């Protein structure tokens, strides 16, 4: 663990929070622009040039609007829910690298060698609020999963049937998809030999991106984080056409609703960083990161590479929302329990075999693709896993009623 420096840590925390808030504001503007582009309309373009000042106007409106608390809600938990959702979303970012990092040294044979490597490691600066945490990915998953408490509190305290149904859907959805989410990264941890995110990046910089060795795990992880973020096609907890607004139905357009929505967008940023770090090599880009030898220039280049990957995944979030329609709830559960969990378990077995017998890493790529093709073949032969409930045939209905 590097030596704690209050100044650097304070500046990094302030920088990450400022970047997150600003990025979320313009991410909302980007989402509205993408929606307008997909629907062949102009979108926000009146406030400032090209509508670039629209997030500032929206933020000011949220701060100035009257805070309304309906008389029939449980006031304590109604106010507490947005705070829980927002704070847990921010805390999950604490261990996620946002730029250049240095992996912590491993065990050494002698105490002198250990002290020497630790001293060298402490002389480097890593762009992560809590560097060197051995349980980094476990911490991020644990804190991120606490966000469901904010949703459940919001739904229960609102004393509204739509809010309650939305929170029940959210709890079932998040708990179901946390299992394939966790199982999909076990193969990554097996080969990196650590749950530390800086170590995982360093392993990929040396051996190649995990995407090339474990494409099925990346697909499972990406699908699971979409469900964890309640984004389309998994936005059943708020489904406007079915539940009015789900768990935030009773929250008017005030700061409380703003906190709930900001928590969702911060989750998108955190999970985009995690996808980039776990499977896309973090700040590594096929040797491009070594072109600059100056320490400051190298740090800026690595930060730009990681930021670019994160932005690309956020852009994918925006496009998927307007591309894939919403699942039914039975389809959502079927996908998690009958498709993703068996595939995640089989992929974990394949990773264990490769690790145990020291097979070439490329053999895991073949196994991943074979599992994916096999699952697709079985689904095609069985008519797909999401074909229930079926409508009864017309002749069967007529025979039943005696017509």
Automatic annotation (TrEMBL):
Membrane topology (UniProt): Multi-pass membrane protein
Pfam families named in the record: NADHdh
Compartments reported by the entry: Cell membrane; Membrane
InterPro entries: NADH_UbQ_OxRdtase_su1/FPO, NADH_UbQ_OxRdtase_su1_CS
Key words, A-Z: Cell membrane, Membrane, NAD, Quinone, Translocase, Transmembrane, Transmembrane helix, Ubiquinone
One cellular-component annotation, GO: plasma membrane
Transmembrane segments: 6-29, 76-96, 137-158, 179-205, 211-227, 265-286, 298-320, 332-353, 359-380
Function: NDH-1 shuttles electrons from NADH, via FMN and iron-sulfur (Fe-S) centers, to quinones in the respiratory chain. The immediate electron acceptor for the enzyme in this species is believed to be ubiquinone. Couples the redox reaction to proton translocation (for every two electrons transferred, four hydrogen ions are translocated across the cytoplasmic membrane), and thus conserves the redox energy in a proton gradient. This subunit may bind ubiquinone.
NCBIfam families named among the record's database cross-references: PRK06076.1-2
Family per similarity comment: Belongs to the complex I subunit 1 family.
Protein name stated in the entry: NADH-quinone oxidoreductase subunit H
Annotated organism of origin: Fimbriiglobus ruber
Lineage per the UniProt record: Bacteria, Pseudomonadati, Planctomycetota, Planctomycetia, Gemmatales
